[in-house]
Design a protein that fits this description.
Immunoglobulin-like; 5 domains; 8-stranded mixed beta sheet; alpha/beta
Length: 661
């Protein structure tokens, strides 16, 4: 507060003047002689009665009038800090980019988060808009999204702003700015700008500054949001046997001081170790085993940091039992293939050459236990002689849970032993017969195989498998034989799919594996398997997809952080999707099958170094941070009211005195 403000408010000290005046104007009673008093002896007074202020109501009005006078003198000097837009036209169009990423949840010294401060700034900007101004809201938490398209309804914008909550997403400032500029590209207002309310901690501190280039200027309205803060967070915690590996990251070396990592089972601390002084690192802790085995997921272990910092939400993470790498398993006759190719079966070699980002594992026989397929994302079976009841049950559970199965039918499939069948793939038996010449309808495979479809035109196999018409009707044909029989087809079962070919993958039996179309088939199969593979842990804000699922329920489990609640899934392009917006463990029910997944922090959110902004992004021509508040007219009205009340009260007092005299 300035000297002038203090001087103006000092006028309020004159409130003592009415008090002194009322004390001086105390009236004394007129003294008259009373004869009998002479007969009473005088008694000296032992106490003096305190003088009282007369006409207290009048005194109060005069005191309030002096206080109002002091406020009236100081009101032109009073200001408050608030965001205000500068204008170059009658109306303005703005797109407010509000950052709702994890770093914005960091608390300042007053216990207020950066997000709360940024949202308050957005309210001030909205309150400064006038009728005819246009506004849009874009959220910069990854992936960036439009919360409110351009609208002239300012009340709707305020309602939408109030409904935005904090999240633990990553930061996508680049995407948010692109969206904001796109929204403003077609508005009629000539005065347009993008307002950025963010700490700019997007992990791109060395990238090109924000606000450079573009027809629509960018205003970084609150650069103070990136004040220095200290934070450490747990990125991931994995358990293998009795070892728990915890990865962490810190915003600075100073933030690691006196911090430890604890692994807890409920309130019981199972292991503790100090974290090294490093920006990123890994700590391995030993925890006792249990009777259920070291891979029991039912035990809810949590790895957390001791102490406190600016960002409490990332100080703990659920411990995930390592399930190992996801594989594409191949069941093939390695003896026959080794004689023909001089190495591994051709399907293994092809999958390896495609670099499908999943390991390829050879399996000696079709699995007959559920635990044997737990780490498989896809399973390829070449010319099986049917499946036993145990194998059928395992394969059905694998596909129902979202797995992908590719079965190549050949000569052995047509001679299945007693008790073996191809259920649930096929209800009827398989036969083997000669293939027609020319064999394949190339046009039927053009949509799936694309440019590789003509390579099937001169295919001359030694024979082909034939399935019943009732089974063929179930499969979606990807390519057909001449005559309409299925060459390659697929069929959804549960959450997964079964792909089928009526030619085996053996080089001795057919030339399919020597054609480019074969690589296209395997590449499409592997891509589908990768899309369906469910990961136990993923970055927060990254959608979880549930291909083939009919219903998904998800609830954020308690015990990791204070927030919990039910998540709503949405269907997009026929597929259920769910986006976790907060860190922690989620209990999922997918078509009556229970599963636990973990949403982990984006590592760049623990890098508080700000993305630089261009000097023109802070130009006063775009907006400012201080605006005067004029309350003088309110104080003046109050002062006039007090004066009028005093006149009325004096008239009433004078009337009463006259009446009593």
């Amino acid at each position: 507060m300035s000297f002038l403000s203090l001087f103006a408010l000092g006028v309020a000290l004159l409130v003592a003047a009415p008090y002194v005046a009322h004390r001086l104007r105390r009236q004394h009673a007129e003294t008259r002689a009373f004869a009998p008093v002479r007969l009473v002896s005088k008694t000296p007074p032992n106490a003096r009665r305190r003088g009282r202020i007369e006409d207290r109501a009048l005194f109060s009005l005069r005191a309030l009038a002096i206080v109002a006078l002091a406020l009236l003198g100081a009101s032109p000097l009073l200001t408050c800090s608030r965001l205000a837009l500068s204008r170059t036209g009658a109306s303005v169009a703005i797109a407010i980019v509000l950052d709702d990423s994890m770093s914005m949840r960091a608390l300042d010294t007053t216990g207020r988060s950066r997000f709360e401060r940024a949202r308050a700034g957005a309210r001030e900007i909205l309150n400064a808009l006038k009728e005819g101004d246009a506004v849009a809201l874009v959220l910069a938490g990854g992936a960036a999204r439009v919360e409110l398209s351009v609208t002239l309804d300012l009340s709707a914008a305020r309602t939408a702003l109030d409904g935005i909550a904090e999240s633990d997403r990553g930061t996508d400032l680049d995407g948010a700015l692109t969206m904001a500029r796109t929204l403003l590209a077609r508005v009629p207002q000539a005065d347009r700008r993008v307002v950025v309310l963010s700490d700019r901690a997007d992990g791109k501190s060395e990238s090109a500054p924000l606000g450079e280039g573009g027809d629509i200027p960018i205003w970084v309205a609150m650069p103070e949001l990136n004040s220095p803060l200290a934070d450490c967070g747990v990125l991931a915690a994995d358990r293998s046997s009795n070892r728990v590996r915890v990865r962490f990251a810190c915003s600075s070396i100073e933030a690691t001081a006196r911090r430890q990592i604890e692994v807890k089972d409920g309130e019981t601390v199972m292991a503790t170790q100090a974290i090294p002084q490093a920006l990123t690192g890994e700590v391995t802790l030993l925890v006792p085993g249990d009777d259920a085995g070291a891979t029991n997921d039912a035990r809810f272990l949590v790895a957390g940091l001791t102490g406190s910092d600016a960002l409490p939400s990332d100080d703990s993470a659920p411990v995930v039992t390592e399930a190992g790498q996801t594989f594409v398993a191949v069941v093939s006759d390695r003896t026959e293939e080794a004689l023909a190719t001089g190495g591994a079966p051709v399907v293994e070699q092809a999958l390896t050459a495609l670099q499908i980002e999943m390991a390829v594992r050879a399996v000696p026989q079709v699995p007959d236990r559920g635990e044997d397929v737990a780490s498989f994302a896809a399973l390829v079976i070449d010319d099986p002689p049917g499946f036993t009841p145990e194998q059928r049950r395992t394969l059905r559970g694998f596909v129902d849970a979202g797995g992908l199965l590719l079965v190549a039918l050949g000569r052995r499939a047509a001679s299945a032993p007693l008790g073996a069948s191809f259920e649930p793939l096929l209800a009827q038996s398989v036969s083997w017969k000669e293939a027609p010449v020319p064999a394949v309808d190339v046009a039927s495979g053009a949509a799936f195989f694309g440019e590789a479809a003509p390579s099937l035109g001169d295919l001359a196999p030694k024979g082909r498998a034939t399935i019943a018409d009732s089974d063929a009707d179930v499969y979606e044909p990807l390519a057909k034989w001449n005559g309409g029989a299925v060459l390659v087809g697929r069929h959804a079962i549960g959450r997964g799919e079964v792909w089928l070919t009526t030619l085996p993958f053996s080089v001795e039996s057919s030339e399919l594996t020597l054609r480019p179309a074969f690589l296209v088939l395997l590449d499409a199969f592997a891509s589908e398997a990768k899309a369906r593979a469910s990961k136990r842990r993923g970055n927060v804000g990254t959608p979880w997809t549930f291909l083939g699922a009919h219903a998904v329920e998800a609830r954020r489990e308690s015990g990791v952080s204070r927030e919990r609640g039910t998540l709503k899934s949405m269907r997009q392009d026929g597929t259920l999707r769910l986006v976790p917006e907060l860190l922690g463990s989620y209990a999922l029910t997918i078509d009556d099958r229970k599963e636990r997944r973990v949403a982990a922090p984006v590592p760049s959110e623990l890098d508080f170094r700000p993305h630089a902004f261009a000097s023109q992004a802070a130009s006063p021509a775009l907006g400012g941070g201080v605006a005067s508040v004029d309350i003088s007219w309110i104080v003046a009205l109050a002062l006039l009211g007090f004066v009028a009340a005093e006149l009325i009260l004096r008239a009433v007092i004078g009337y009463r005195v006259a009446a009593s005299g």
